[in-house]
Every structure is written in structure tokens, then in C-alpha cells.
Amino acid sequence: MTRQIRNVAIIAHVDHGKTTLVDQLLRQSGTFRENEKVAERVMDSNDLERERGITILAKNCAVEWKGTHINIVDTPGHADFGGEVERALSMVDGVVLLIDAQEGPMPQTRFVTKKALALGLK
Fold first, then answer.
1. CA 27 – CA 38 distance, rounded (Å)
2. By residue range, what is the domain housing residue 65?
3. For residue 65, what are the β-bridge partners?
């Protein structure tokens, strides 16, 4: 039997919840033990990211869910790091687009959506 694998990027405008979503997916998938202390923003691992509170470099992690291995790429949302998002999009099978319900679509939302659609990602 072949292993089910999915490669997915989380894309959105800055501060629309990409890293928070990935952190919660890791917690809820059982990646961490119940008694394990985990930083609030697991995916923002370098000092500058923690200091600024934003993702600068795309990072990947993986979860197992109902027999499927899901590789997740947490991408930056800030316009200054759009090239990092484009590189990540070239390596995935699909995307999860997050939109803040309060703010709605913002400039980076449109940018990352256009890039994903241009690559045929759904």
C-alpha cells in the first residue's frame, strides 16, 4: 500500500493567522505530548521572527492525520518576503488561503492568491 502524502502551503496577508493555524494543527494532531511545554509560536524559530512577531522564512513541518502524511509550509505574509512565498508555492500540491474575517482580503491576499492560481494550485 502506498503512503498518502499531501504537501500544502498556508498563504495569507500578514497577521491573518498562518503561523497560529499551523501551531494549532501541530498541537491538535498530537505532535506534542500533553506534558510537553511548547512555545506559543512554534514555527517562528529565529530571534528576528520572534522579536518582530512575523514569519520571515518559510518553514515546513509535518503531521499525520487519518492515515495521511501532511507536509505543511508556513509562509511569510509580509510583502517584503513575497519571494519566499513564491519559492514555497513551487514545492506544494495545494494551498490553504486564510482571510481575516474582520479585515477581509488585503493586498498580500490578492498577491499570494494570484501566484498560487498561476501555478495551478487549488
1. 9
2. 4-119
3. 68
